[in-house]
Amino acid sequence: MRISVVVILAAGIAFGSGLTAAPLMGPKGGFSTLLFRLEYDPSKNCSKPIRPYGNDRYAWDSYKSDAAHYIRCMQEAAEADMSYASEVIADGYKEKVAEFRREVERGY
Q1: Domain residue limits, the chain
Q2: b/e map 64-94, b = 16+ CB within 10 Å
Q3: Is 0.70 topped by the overall pTM?
Q4: If you average pLDDT over every residue of the chain, what do you get?
Q5: What whole-number distance in Å separates Cα of residue 27 and Cα of residue 72?
Q6: Does the pLDDT at position 63 exceed 80?
Q7: In this structure, are residues 46 and 94 in contact, taking their beta carbons and an 8 Å threshold?
Q8: Which ranges of the chain would DSSP assign to H, the alpha helix?
Q9: Shortest CA distance to 51 belongs to which of 62, 38, 43, 42?
Q10: Looking at the record's lineage, which domain of life comes first (predicted)?
Q11: Which residues, 6 or more positions from 81, have their beta carbon under 8 angstroms from its beta carbon?
């Protein structure tokens, strides 16, 4: 499932407006661009389970468990990346505002 950056940024800004420093680690999901559209794939670091071929009950139970883990992994990656994106945006905004204020205070 791909999530547009607009959703990521909007959610990140809404939930993380008080954050101060971007984490040292980068995003957990995969970002890609196509023309002017930024796309996101949260499954980058998650292992997608392989559907069993037969009707073995143990194999299907294992598959269901692995599927639940896969979905949790993607959810955690998306949540971490929303937090990361909001922190990076907030830090960039604060940096540019401070830079502009210094420029105004210096004068010509």
Answers
A1: 3-106
A2: eeeeeeeeebbeebbebbbbbbbbbbbeeee
A3: no
A4: 80
A5: 16
A6: yes
A7: no
A8: 5-15, 57-106
A9: 62
A10: Bacteria
A11: 8, 27, 28, 29, 40, 42
Mind giving me the DSSP string for 31-56?
EEEETTEEEEETTTTS-PPPPPSS--
User: Which residue is listed with tokens 């392989």?
Assistant: 50
* Conformational region of residue 20, where left means phi above 0, alpha means psi within -120 to 50, and beta covers everything else: alpha
SS3 1: coil
Task: Return the half-sphere exposure (C-beta side, CA atoms, 13 A cut-off) of residue 58.
Answer: 0
Q: How confident is the model at residue 23 (pLDDT cuts 50, 70, 90)?
A: low
CB 5 within 8 A of CB 41: no
